[in-house]
Amino acid sequence: MRQKNRTCNVLVAVALLIAAPAVMAQTDSAGKDQVKRGLYLTNIGGCNDCHSPKLMTPQGPQPDPARMLSGHPANAQLPPVPTGMFGPGQWAALTNDEFTAWAGPWGISFAANLTPDVTTGLGGWTAAQFIATMRTSKHLGVGRPILPPMLTYALAALTDSDLKAVFAYLKSLKPIKNQVPVTVPSKGP
């Protein structure tokens, strides 16, 4: 009986060793497909428009490949916002030359660092926290409001599968340490 059990155990172990690479390849392929879908969604969603610092080219501003999705540069200086710019029949928003900082009636908001840097980006986030942020328009799903120009109402319409793909893509990026400034609240009308 013991010999039979040992033989069965050996056969099971051999079967697992033979099957494991195929299962792992399917998992790796599914993960690569999810990251590829996330890249596609971030491209069509225009995430680089605000979350990537720009380089000025003959064709106009283009995302800087070395700082892709790293948010508003921590050391960037902003000019003062002219008073009386915002209100009914006036301007709704202004942006800096990198399109990473936006001023409006809400104050000044800065594009977040979406790279997986643990201290300044999404490195410590879970997929559930990312989805909650997109669904609630609140940081980590419970914190401060996500401000314009972020279109969380449009992103909230994505499926969980699509939001997980976006998150998988963001987690696949090179981490970039860049502490984005905190929002500057409006000084009133």
Descriptive report:
The protein has 189 residues and is an alpha+beta fold. It has one domain (2-185). It is 40% helix and 11% strand. The protein has a four-stranded antiparallel sheet with strand order 3-4-5-6, with no helix packed on it. A two-stranded antiparallel ribbon has the order 1-2. A hairpin with a 2-residue loop joins β1 and β2 (60-63). The chain is globular. The N and C termini lie far apart (86 Å).
Short structural description:
With 189 residues, this protein is of the alpha+beta class. It has one domain.
Q: Key features?
A:
two-stranded antiparallel ribbon, about 190 residues, about 10% strand, four-stranded antiparallel β-sheet, single chain, globular, alpha+beta, 6 strands
Care to count the β-strands?
6
Q: What does the overall shape look like?
A: globular
Mean of pLDDT: 87
The side-by-side strand order for the widest beta sheet comes to 3-4-5-6
- How far apart are the termini? 86 Å
Q: Major β-sheet, in short?
A: 4 strands, antiparallel
Oligomer description: single chain
Radius of gyration: 23 Å
As for the number of domains, it is 1
- Structural classification: alpha+beta
Strand % is: 5-15%
Order of helices and strands: HHEEEEEHHHE
Low-confidence stretches: 7-18, 22-27
- Helical coverage, percent range: 25-40%
